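Quick start: read one record
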Amino acid sequence: MVNLILRLNSRQKAGVAAGIMGIVLNLLLFSFKLAGGLLTKSTAIIADAFNNLSDMGSSVITFIGFKMAGKPADRDHPFGHGRLEYLAGLLVSFFIIIMGFELAKQSFGKIFRPVPVKFSVFALVTLGVSVLVKLFMFFINNELAEKINSETLKITARDSLNDCIATSAVLLGTAISFFTTVNLDGYLGLGVSLFIMYSGVKSALDTINPMLGEAPDPHLVQTVKNEVLKDERILGIHDLIIHNYGPNKILMSLHAEVDSKGDVLELHDLIDSVEKELKQKFNCEAVIHMDPVVTDDVEANEIKNSVTEIVKSIDSRLSIHDFRMTDGITHKNLIFDMVVPFDLTLPDGTLIEMIEQRLEGGTYYLSINIDRE
């Protein structure tokens, strides 16, 4: 099934096809479960039916989200409309939460005013088939999400797995209610509704973070660094920034350090080649700023090494780059950028004072630009 969908040769079309599949299957499950719930007067089965209705609404939003996210870039949106997929996922999550809350209210009523559950083979068979259908949908959506890198389909897959668990619980509880005097209907309905709300909240958090601009995956950052530093003419990199404009829409920029005495045209050609390699490997737009650095100034290199040891002694995560030294009549100016983690609580002024106090061997004026990372 996944291979059949992927033959559409378009990420957008594959997502749309997954949305249509979800709409059809969830509508069928809702119809049969609602009929079974009305026959048995079971709040738990009706709650599970409306859970499928919410899933159908989610599939509709997924369908619309992929259609809109696939729109090409235009003058007002030069980086495309990919983030609309995240917005679609967020709307799906809110829809799930609201539906769960409404079902919880109904279930509370059935706990305090229980209604006998009537036996129905149709209802039991419907619940059993529903578990199998939702398991099928989980595997399809999960594999498809991995293939096309879709957070929305990951949420849909997770919700399908949650539905398997919830429906299995309803099936077991309904069977117990049928064949014993124990009425678990209201409690099962409440359990399903709480499960639905939990799933909705978790899914919402998964879509809000990329929209707010979360930090890139550390593995991706390290892989990018390794790729850029493959050529020995690039001495180091810093100020790597990765922007996410939607699934499979990444923009990255970085500074690459090169020998200041190298051939400018040769180095420029090197930077162009690295940008092209990054684009091919990571399916992104890459911009690299070339930073020439002095490599043969013995005194400057010694002081740079001393400063590096000092900042590492303060915190091993600190690093410096763009180091320059200029001579004055009475002092030397040390100019550099220092990368500081966000969770380091030391004020910037305190950090600079600590470096100044530990520097020995001359009179230095520090000009430090603090980069929080």
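The two ends are 43 Å apart (CA to CA).
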